[in-house]
Design brief:
- The chain is of the alpha+beta class.
- Helix content is 30%, strand content 37%.
- The strands form four sheets. Strands 2, 11, 12, 13, 14, 15, 16, 20 and 21 form a nine-stranded antiparallel sheet that branches. Strands 1, 17, 18, 19 and 22 form a five-stranded antiparallel sheet that branches.
- 22% of the residues are buried.
Length: 362
Amino acid sequence: MRAGTLALIGAFAAVLGLSGCGDAPPPKAPPGPEFRAAAVEIREVDLAYSAEAVIEAVRQSTVSAQLSGRIVELRFDVGDYVKQGEVIVRIDERAAGQALAASQAQVREADAAARNARLQLERSRQLLVQKFISQAALDKAEADSRQAQARLSGMLAGAGQAATERSFATIVAPYSGVVSARHVELGELAVPGKPLMTGFDPSTLRAVANVPQAQIAALQASGRARIEVPSTGRWYDVRQLTVVPSADPRTHTTQVRLELPEDARGIYPGVFARAHFAVGRAPRLLAPRAAVFQRSELTAVYVIGNDGARRPQLRQVRLGTAGDEQSIEVLAGLKPGERVALEPMKAGMAAVPAGAGMGAGR
């Protein structure tokens, strides 16, 4: 019985050996994961000269106090949007109100004196006709009337000045905009000239760049430019390009102002930007910006095979300066027609072989 068992085991081993030496097809690899991808292509784009810029507001102002008094109301704070004519700060106006009341009382007194002087002049004229007074008395009555009228005019001007000073206690927004700074607190003493609030109009923003003088002629000939704001990832078409007719003798640069569209939102004065001035057009190899990532000194993309079965391959690339908000120029590392992953993080996780971490731990 033992010999029969050994013979059965030997026959089974022979069958396994024959099956291993056959031409059976290898098992199919599981299909690779799917990624959003885009092709690298050659496209005609604007050749641009780029320069660093900063955002500033065309209309930005600081409102200050024009009379002394305690601040009794602050209606807005930093970041609030204020409409033109809205009250933003109120100053205690009791002293200004009392000065206005005194001026108005003096106006009433002067008006009464002027009316009396006019009546006296009329009586003097009638008495002169009747030969009861001399011409000198009439002249004095006319002078008194003119003096009373002049005093009334002076008092009216003083009352108007007092009313104007009282209106300074209520500070209103000179135009619609956003509060960018508040310089006072409730209860502080305001004095003439003390800054209260600073604001700017977000619909009148522009970028300011300093450009070498050698590039000015090309910029003026083209007249086209775009503004890139890296903090928001957005690009804006420039409405108007203005070259300031003066140069810095130390840096040999000229300031260029680029007006942004009114719908530019999410940016404010002081934000860093890049100005891309169009100086021509030429074909360039472009890759999607979403596919490019940086790790320390490495700039790379993940290339996906056309069959979709292979894992994404990490490919180092060298970038140029041409492109737009969607694409960027590739100088080396890619060929036209290759497809790159638009989700580098997801592609990077799929590029790591399954079980690699387990093997490293053994």
